[in-house]
Structures are given as structure tokens and as C-alpha cells.
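Why do we care about 3D structure at all? Because function follows from shape, and shape follows, mostly, from sequence. That is the central idea of this module. The next example makes it concrete: a single protein chain, its amino acid sequence, and then its structure expressed as C-alpha cells.
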Amino acid sequence: MTDLQKLTIGKALNLGLRRAMEEDPKVLIMGEDVGKLGGVFRITDGLQKDFGEQRVLDTPLAESGIIGTAVGLAVRGFRPVCEIQFEGFIFPGFDQISSQLAKLHYRTQGKVKMPVVIRVPFGGGIGAVEHHSESPESLFAHIPGLKVVSISNAVDAYWGIQEAIKSDDPILFFEPKRLYHSGALRAEIDVAGTPQKMFSSHVVREGTTATVVAYGPSVKVALDAAAAAEDEGKSLEVIDLRTLSPLDLGPVFESVRKTGRLIALSEAPSESSLTSEIAARVQQECFYSLEAPVLRVTGFDTPYPPAKLEEHYLPDLDRVLHAVDRSLAW
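And the structure:
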């Protein structure tokens, strides 16, 4: 039996969480305003009403307490799903994430599982104030013991959150907040179907002129750039990383060996970032296939600016196309 529904990313996440809670009574949701309000982005809307306050918990404004409590719940056999209200609020919980959550499975030689999911709305484009538009994913990708993923579409949102919850390892699940309720990104999903495997890189558009690799909110920018480039006779291959740690770069290497050129795209600042790692690894593995240096299109190495300046900060279609032109001119 199929149940096809056309969903936004936000609604897909909501239904994915609901399905996970229906299938496993050990799944709990916790965070600031996730219950009665349904979260500031309404991703958990209706879940407390249907599953009760014992399974959807409104917490104090204390990220360290949220993560620390989740660690204790995981030790006791639960599968907590924590929501960090905005990505910039995650740092009070950084100690628990890096010192406890990431290490307990290894430290106990696998005896203690850490099935904790931390949902992190991230990225800019919503006109928010300070600490509400950042991209800190590289900080967590650097920590061994954590899996870091990022979705870019409704299909991956629905299946990805379920796979993350079923994992026995801790996962930071980065969600592009400005795309939550985009009608243009609605996708038809069989919500009663067989779970799909996630967390590997995926070619979302094939091409031959150059490769553009992106993740999260930047995937839409890459696809828009590819559509515009086609009008100029250029064929861009777009790859959605989906998993940021561990990186699945096999499809990227294969693509670069075909196109000879790579543009790495991200909203995060460029220094010591995921785009840095991608550039280094591609140079190492595909040196003799490259026709030009790996180029990066990123946010700037500054704190995220006030809302009136963010359109100048965020990588856009024009910056991607300019990088493609630079690569082709090499």
C-alpha cells in the first residue's frame, strides 16, 4: 500500500519524526519550545499533543542540560532527539557533545551505545539577528565519534531523520532553515514506503563541463547555477554531499576525473572548513585529472553580518557562475 504525499522539507521532517515515534516507544523529542509551540519553525508541531509530555519534552533554555540529559537517557536505552533552536545556540552544549557524546561508545569498547540525534537548523537567508544564521558544521565534522549530515530536500528529510534516529551512534543533523517551508521544494514521497538508505553523496544533476559539490542550503544554489549555465552552453554536474563526516567523496572523485574541474560551495567561512578538506582530498586523489585548481565559493571569513547585508554575504548563483568561468579560463 502506498501513501503519496507532496511535502515541504519542514512537513517531511515532522512526518519522519512521527513515524519514528510510532515505531519505537523509546524515541523521545526534547528541546526549547518543541512541545506546545511545536518549535520556532513548527517542525515538531502536533507531536506533543499526540504522544504526550513524557515523550515530547519542553526543556529549560539550557543547551548543555539538553545534551547532558540526552546522554544519560541514551545510556538508559532511550533514543533522544534534541532540537537546538538555532545553530548559534549549540555552543553551551559543545562540551557535552565533544567530551561525552562523541567518546562514550569508543571509551567503553562499544558496550555503551549513544543513539542521540541533535537536530540543528542552520544557515542564513531568513533575516535573523546575531547567532541565528551561522554555519558551524565544520567544527563538529572535525570531532571523531560524531556523524554529521545535512539535508537539502524533502525526500532526504523524511527518510534521513528516520535513519538517523535508528543509528546507534550520535548524529548531528543539520537542516537548512530557510528552505523548511519552500513550496518550490515540495516533493512527492511515499510515506508508507520502504525506508531508503541515506548518508552518502549523491549526483543530483549530471554534467560534463565542471563539477559543483555542495550540501544543505547550497545545493539549491548549485542547481540554480547549473540551470543558468546551461543557457550559456555549459554543463555542470551537481553533487549533494549529504554526509559531512565521514565524507563520502567517491562520487566526487569520479565526477572530477570526468570533468577536470571542481567548484566547492558552502555558506560557511572558507578557512579550515569542509570546502578546504574537499579541495585537499580532490587534489590528492585526482591531481592528474584536474584541468584547473579546485575553486571554492563560500561565506566570508567574518562573523555573520546584520540581516541587511546577508544577501552580499551568502554565496549566490552569480558567484558560482563566476567561479566556473575562472576555472574554464585557467
